[in-house]
Amino acid sequence: MKLQKKVAVITGAASGIGKAIAELYANEDIKVVLADLDLDSAKAVEEGITRSGGEAKAVKVNVANLADIENMIAAAVKEFGTLDILVNNAGITDSMEPAGDIDDEKWDDIFEINTKGVMRAIRTTLPIFLEKGKGVIINTASTGGLNGAHAGAAYTASKHAVVGITKNTGFMYADKGIRCNAIAPGGVDTNIASAMKNIHGFGASRTKLSQGAMPRIGKPEEIAQVALFLASDASSFVNGTVITADAGWTAAF
Ligand SMILES: NC(=O)c1ccc[n+]([C@@H]2O[C@H](COP(=O)([O-])OP(=O)(O)OC[C@H]3O[C@@H](n4cnc5c(N)ncnc54)[C@H](O)[C@@H]3O)[C@@H](O)[C@H]2O)c1
Fold first, then answer.
1. Residue 2, domain member (yes or no)
2. pLDDT in tens, 41-62
3. 146-166 tens-digit pLDDT
4. Domain membership of residue 73 as a residue range
5. CA-CA distance, 219 to 216, in Å (whole number)?
6. Cα(155) to centroid(ligand 1), Å
7. Pocket around ligand 1: residues whose beta carbon is below 6 Å from it?
8. pTM (2 decimals)?
């Protein structure tokens, strides 16, 4: 993929999709900053990558905190000299609440992490990419960012917003050597559901109607392959768009 010596920041790199992206990138000789709220698990990923001959640096980051975001980008420059690839992957789910039962505080939490964190990381990174005249941004959206039947209202809206900033950023900086794309994974076997508490019975029952069409659950490594394609020049003509990776699930609708 000719990505040797590139530097990537990956949020949510301690688990699931982010971990798989970090390990695949490191395998391609990309130097990776592993940004996660869970520093112990991020350090375990760092150790694994280092043991396999790769270069990685774990950093404790809450993507809902601006100072942490700025520190995360500064850490890439301090540790590895620059930044070439930003992967905004950290995200949390709701508990399937429909609009009638959304709690303001939970809505805000989900938007701070899933949406505002993405904007802030892009905003903090852009001066570096603009100065270099190149750079790649990859956002982990969701099939829930394209459809209405996969989660609760807050998660669905937060991921639709990620699709929006992806398209806007891709277009705005299209002639500056910067590409911004999103991945919309379908159901993937990660730890994300473990944080779901008090699942909303009615909301969940509505999402089940669409889940019946899901061919299978994906593996994080299958999403990582899409993130590798989007990071590389193999996707040089792909910008401001969303690649769905869901085994054909949403082709049903
Ligand atoms: N698993 C799926 O089925 C699926 C489907 C579509 C989209 N996604 C998206 O994929 C992304 C990765 O999720 P995953 O499924 O790998 O989940 P995961 O829970 O396995 O991993 C998420 C990681 O993000 C970290 N994180 C959570 N909040 C954070 C914060 N505020 N700051 C920094 N790090 C934080 C967690 O500590 C964890 O390591 C998310 O954006 C999620 O919405 C997942």
1. no
2. 999 999 999 999 999 999 999 9
3. 999 999 999 999 999 999 999
4. 7-252
5. 10
6. 12
7. 11-12, 14-18, 36-38, 61-64, 89-92, 113, 140, 142, 185, 187-188, 190-192
8. 0.98
